Amino acid sequence: MCKKATTVTERGSNVIAWYAEDIPVPAGPDRFSGLPGTILLVDADSGRITFTATQIQPIADNKQLKAPTGGKLLTQADFDKKLTELMGPADAQGRRMIKREN
Question: Is residue 77 part of a domain?
Fold first, then answer.
């Protein structure tokens, strides 16, 4: 079962997203995310840009998932410092942009 979400971007583009609350991960393709379920289809600019999930493979059981081992425990301050070191400082909205070097 999917639900429909719509918005208009700052540039005036209409965006329609279909998401599944049964998959409770606020993820989606490209820069689309943040809905209360996984985004399975995005239509931006009346079909100019579209993303469609073509396959979903659920994990049969949680026994396939393994907790990570090793590593070191970080405080929130240490984590924030490492995040800034790797991705740069956050903007006014708390977003970070990954800058790729060619």
Answer: no
Check: CB of residue 67 under 8 Å from CB of residue 49: no
Place of tokens 């493979």: 57
Residues 33, 55: Cα–Cα separation, whole Å? 18
Which residue range(s) make up the domain with 48? 3-52
Q: Burial level of 15, CB count in 10 A (0-12/13-18/19+)?
A: middle
Q: Say which residues have a Cβ less than 8 Å from residue 25's Cβ, sequence separation at least 6.
A: 37, 38
Query: Strands 38-44 and 3-8, how do they pair?
Result: unpaired
Is 46 a domain residue?
yes
Tens of pLDDT along the chain (102 residues) come to 999 999 998 888 899 999 999 998 889 998 888 899 999 999 999 889 999 999 988 776 767 778 888 888 899 999 989 888 888 888 777 777 665 555
Within a domain: residue 36?
yes
